[in-house]
Design goal:
This protein is α+β, with helices and mostly antiparallel strands. Helix content is 49%, strand content 15%.
Length: 554
Amino acid sequence: MNAPIMVLNTNAERDQGKRAQFGNIAAAKAVADIVRTTLGPRSMLKMILDPMGGIVMTNDGNAILREIDVNHPAAKSMIELSRTQDEEVGDGTTSVIILAGEMLQVAEPFLEKKMHPRTIVSAYNRALIDAEEIMKSIAISLDTSDKEAMLGMIRSTIGTKFMSSYGDLICNLALEAVLIVKEDITVDADESKASSLAVADIDAYAQDRGHITMDTKRFARVERIPGGQMSDSYVLDGVIINKDVLHPKMRRHITNPRVICLDIPMEYNKGESQTNIEISKEADFEAYLELEEQYIKRFCASLIKLKPDVVVTEKGCSDLAQHYLMKAGVTVLRRMRKTDNARLARCSGATIGHRVELLTDKDVGTKCGEYLVKQIANETFSFFHKCREPKACSIVLRGGSKDVLQEMDRNLQDAMCVTRNILLNPKVLPGGGATEMELSVRLSENADAIDGVMAYPYRAVADALEIIPRTLIQNCGQQPIKVLTELRAKHALKGGKGAHFGVDGKEGGIVDMNEYGVWEPFVVKLQTIKTAIESASMLLRIDDVVSGLRNRDE
Ligand SMILES: Nc1ncnc2c1ncn2[C@@H]1O[C@H](COP(=O)(O)OP(=O)(O)OP(=O)(O)O)[C@@H](O)[C@H]1O
Ligand SMILES: [Mg+2]
């Protein structure tokens, strides 16, 4: 008779049906359990050894999960979630994992009862749509010009972090840095598009995009310099670059420097591919060298014509060029990092040049107030500071050790992201689990009105949302059941009177967020809940896990 037909390679591992589904749920739960204790103001830190032997100490969900090595594909996908959350909004990376894990866990009983995953998924999606509406109805607007309110807002983010005792310092640094790099789109618009628009359209275009750019990743660089006091950290009104001048005789202190930024080598360009030169007379060789020299001389002459005080380049600078420029009293920095160059150009007002002959007076940066070479803790730094309206900045972080500085940097990034989110969308939601509890109560009210089997998974979403307040209570060592029941009762009050009640994350009691003052950006919360539900839906729809070919030797 016929031999059995093998479709899949026999080395492939395969999990099907129930086994795959429950396997995925277990994996997601395992990942959520790792980060559960790091949520909220009473959170624990994790210490992770990386393969190189370095240590990471943090309670940032993304930073923890990034370091650990997992095997199960569903666990990998969960970890990806927190990375997305980090890139999109910068905060809420722990919440999203906990929530997604819980959303999957509550689906388990339905799968056991043989409910089709599609039904569960549609109920989840319906709950998500309703949740967004409810969140819109309880969000309130924040006045972004009110510095105190902004700082309070950032403080709630930092409050859950290791650095919370230095909270005010970090909040101020974050706010200051973000305000420096903040820019209206009309200036920095997608240029090809913006330039083809009439002036009147540009406003509409900007409004349409509704978007001010705040690229903190590119334009606010954190310099971590071990040593000193944490309180010595500051935001510079300009940039610092980890370089000394090229030649010891060049000037190290210039007021109101004229800065030229280049991204070309200041030396004779050697042929890229193989170049053959046939020389028959000695004179020809001399002429050849002469040509190179002439080129450098012309190059420097065009630069010097613009009367720069400082010339920086991303590439090298030959001895000859260095000589000419030094004689003209120009300070040179070479082999700059591309990003450093971009920041310097932005805060000094220079344009990065590619051809020296084409540079004009307009391309020279004149907005820096001072150029200074200074030593901090054994390292030499070039300061370009006291800039008039800098559009980029360096943040100097000082502190005891490398690990502390790294955690401080991560906390600062969170704070900057939250600041940016608020400036882009000044809507906030109550924190401390208040939003989740409100959603939970309102969704379970909605569930009563739903006919058919969909009602059960819909209600399960409502139950799952309670995990955030519950974890916050657990993490400060209280019994969740009593507090949660009380909190639920508050939120069940008619007319949304209790919508702003949440958990006091330090004591575990119930507080009104209007007084307690823990608020979170609307975009962060929305993104958290959206990502959690969507990814849970996705994992639920998997009924077959095939792992590709195994190596035969294994
Ligand atoms: N003082 C507080 N009292 C109660 N809850 C708080 C307080 N401060 C923050 N929270 C709550 O803690 C949660 C945030 O915790 P945490 O910052 O540890 O995690 P995350 O923001 O999800 O992830 P991460 O910051 O690691 O990216 C939010 O739900 C927030 O409302
Ligand atoms: Mg946080």
